[in-house]
Input
Amino acid sequence: MDNKAITEIIEKMLANNKFSALKELLTEMNVVDIAQAIEETELPENQVRIFRLLSKDYSAQVFSYLDSDSQGAIVEAITNTELKFLMEDMFVDDAVDFLEEVPANIVTRVLAHTNPETRNLINRFLNYPENSAGSIMTIEMVSFPETYTVDMAIAEIRRTALDKETIYTCYCTDSQRKLVGSVPLRRLIVSPGESEIRDIMYDDDQLLFVNTLDDQESVAALARKYDLLSVPVVDNEQRLVGIITIDDIVDVIEDENTEDFEKMALLLPSEDQYLKTGVLTLTKNRIIWLLVLMVSATFTGQIIEGFEDKLSAIAGLTASIPMLMDTGGNSGNQVSTLIIRGLALGDITIKDYFKVLWKEIRVAFLCGITLAAVNFVRMYILRMITGSQTETPVFIVVCLSMLCAVIVAKMIGASLPMLAKLLKLDPALMAGPMITTIVDALSLLIYFGFASLILTV
Amino acid sequence: MDNKAITEIIEKMLANNKFSALKELLTEMNVVDIAQAIEETELPENQVRIFRLLSKDYSAQVFSYLDSDSQGAIVEAITNTELKFLMEDMFVDDAVDFLEEVPANIVTRVLAHTNPETRNLINRFLNYPENSAGSIMTIEMVSFPETYTVDMAIAEIRRTALDKETIYTCYCTDSQRKLVGSVPLRRLIVSPGESEIRDIMYDDDQLLFVNTLDDQESVAALARKYDLLSVPVVDNEQRLVGIITIDDIVDVIEDENTEDFEKMALLLPSEDQYLKTGVLTLTKNRIIWLLVLMVSATFTGQIIEGFEDKLSAIAGLTASIPMLMDTGGNSGNQVSTLIIRGLALGDITIKDYFKVLWKEIRVAFLCGITLAAVNFVRMYILRMITGSQTETPVFIVVCLSMLCAVIVAKMIGASLPMLAKLLKLDPALMAGPMITTIVDALSLLIYFGFASLILTV
Output
């Protein structure tokens, strides 16, 4: 049964006042699916009615999975007491995510009905830089002194497990609350009960953590490399202040990938889903690069204008311009995408530059020769079919330019992302637009250069 | 200390025969870092020497993290007995990954020294279709009958935990070994010891699983949507045959993303890292789309040739061709990237087509108007500076064409990925190449159409 069908059933049950049956149904559903059903419900008052039927155990979880529109609608409708309980039941990182998205008046009301301790916490979280480890961490982790025994640790976990975001990796601290070790629950439950935690925990070189100010990308890289289920976050004094769990890390990975896709498609990165983004925002995200590239096409225009006499005089020369430019651009983008991706995943580093360049020169030569040869045949056949007046020397100019343009394009496609990385700029952001512009202009210069050398009017 | 430095220390210790100190060092290191150090070691015999110093508890894990070159080198050097122990200690999914990459003679020798039960299992795994759930699952999961009590379950976990890939979600089966429920370890340890598992497990609608033949992409989507740490895999009779853990799911997500990047950059998808891929393979992965697009540029060439007389006669007309085509192509790619990404993440479905189209028409209109206006000013200023003879009606033709080309490009960019999805083709594979070709040709036709209408020679 798909979600749409479930939503319709829920709406019918609401219309017929079958509240207790609906309550039963909701307890059988996954919180993610309940959230989706609430979002799909047409009437805002029905969203609140469904939400109120949820058992207290699940309502905070369901709320965390809702989009900000539905969250806003529910918070506007519930009483201050309900709001207070909701905020108490939510994990701090989910509360922060929610507050970052809703209008200011809702934030004010929510914070007014949160207990002072949580309010301070939330305010601290809201102050971490965007996309920092601090901004995505949660404080609901399991931590205990390294002096605990295994039995004490397990008792502590059993007592507090329900309030923790994960219990599967536990963190050990010293008397100054500094992070000194980590121990997976798996290791705990197979260890003798009287062992001391400090004897079984991972410490020193094997202890992995990030700082609150580290970028979320480096958190994801660490978790991916070492297959971690959660990453501990420490402050500048190495005190344990939070953890980031794998579900949030998966979201970071998808967000970073989406951002790279957007950058390479010449879009300003956007945090919102496409369908929820307004026309004006979409326009704003796209127009800047389109304008920059249009204006930078002044170069190619000027190159062509400077050569206009020759283009008019020699038949067939103009017709190949789009093909040459497209092939150059495509060749360059093929390389730059591989390099940008390799840099992002850590498979390639700047030190590999000359290895990459040498590889690309050979690939470019093979690609260029093949393309030039096929193109010669293509032009030859086309002339036979259409009876055009393009002369064979023009073919030679086009094919030679093709070979050189591909080589130049591949070298630029390999170099620009590396250069960006070296200058600590974002390879994905730099490379796309600049490669097209540079390769377009160079392809034309190469083309007209060969034309001047070989063809006489 | 970075990994390069550690590798050098290890090599020095080997050269000076400080084996017991090295052994101590290795026990303090993370398995991922040991694997990296082995890969970075120059001499193949040193790779084996380090590997042999590893305690038996870790050697299989370290082996799993090695790349296939180092795995092959080690397997060639170790004795049959060592090989047998190694295969027994490795998780089945890691063994399968390793066997899929190494040469056939190594596979034969490995299988000859594996016990018959494991050999059968490995063979079954090797037969699952590439990228299916079966091919990436592991059989080392925790499962017990639904009739167990919590205490029995926990005792079972403590006893077997070390041989399992994860113990954090346990799976419950009925007397026919059919999957009937799942229970997180967290839920187990907070439940009373005498409770029966069937009373606390998630079942029915809340039980999530995939089939061995399902695509790995759907496994990743399920895990991402419901924040799962592992996904159970069942056969056609719904018998539990394996699980897929979050670390492998993270790899699937990155692989699928890499594949989409490659497709959109007109590359054939490749499984290997860039630096490890040979020049011939790289060339092969790139040349096909370059050739297809070069040949399809015959259309644009023909359109230009058909219009060559007018292009020669009217100054400034040729110079704007690259700019128009680039702007059209960029506009189309901006949309198609957003749609492809939205379809891949499930944020957009085919049902949203008309919503998307209507949104894109409005965005295109705003972008097109802005671009046309800025372009008019740009051409005007340029004429003042360069004193070119381009007449104002040419400006009007270019700007009108720009507006129309952007609108057409955005509509095509929105429609093609949806059409591909509707036809059950891969949006990422279809859209990139076709959009450029179609938009290039249409932009030219629009341009020359306006030129014929407005300009007279």
About this structure: The CA atoms of residues 218 and 386 of chain A lie 58 Å apart.
